[in-house]
Specification:
Layout (H helix, E strand, L loop, with lengths): L1 H14 L7 H41 L14 E2 L2 E2 H18 L3 H17 L5 H41 L1
Antiparallel strand pairs: 1-2
Length: about 170
């Protein structure tokens, strides 16, 4: 029996047919099925890309506190006369202020430089305005660094005076 199947397979292979019947019908049916699966997968991939893009945009908006509804209320919920949205806005502004206050002069300079570069590329600043703004940013960086250096020296002197008081 096994020899008969081998002979049939060899015979079919010689004729370039598959054991399921007409080769073109077989491949057409399967190619249509695969094409449908590819179309579905492609649609799902595009949907996932869109959702990812939307999520990243929303994350940027949250980071910039733009996603908050500033209309004065969220579903009519008020807390002590203030809406949830206004409280969230105040909190976001406060968090932003704290983050800005702990940045080093160099980090502030880098942020300003990136902002100026984006404005230049968008055509909001001329090259001359960009260069002047960048020069001003460098000066602010140098002044901020001088302030840190002075505070550091003052702290060192204060620390030394405390040590002398303890020894005396």
């Amino acid at each position: 029996m096994g020899g008969l199947r081998a002979a049939q397979a060899t015979h079919l292979a010689g004729k370039n047919l598959n054991p399921y019947g007409n080769e073109s019908k077989f491949f057409k049916a399967h190619s249509r099925a695969y094409a449908a699966q590819i179309k579905i997968a492609s649609g799902q991939l595009n949907k996932a890309k869109s959702q990812y893009s939307t999520s990243m945009n929303n994350l940027d908006k949250i980071n910039n506190a733009e996603i908050i509804d500033f209309s004065g209320g969220v579903g009519g919920v008020d807390i002590g006369g203030e809406s949830v949205a206004s409280l969230a806005k105040k909190r976001a502004i406060e968090v932003k202020r704290v983050i800005e206050s702990i940045k080093t002069p160099f980090a502030k300079h880098v942020d300003r430089s990136k902002n100026y570069e984006a404005m230049l590329k968008a055509g909001e600043l001329t090259k001359k305005q960009h260069d002047l703004a960048l020069k001003n940013s460098v000066e602010q960086y140098k002044n901020g660094q001088k302030s840190i250096d002075q505070n550091s020296k003052t702290y060192q002197l204060y620390s030394e005076s405390l040590k002398l008081r303890i020894l005396c």
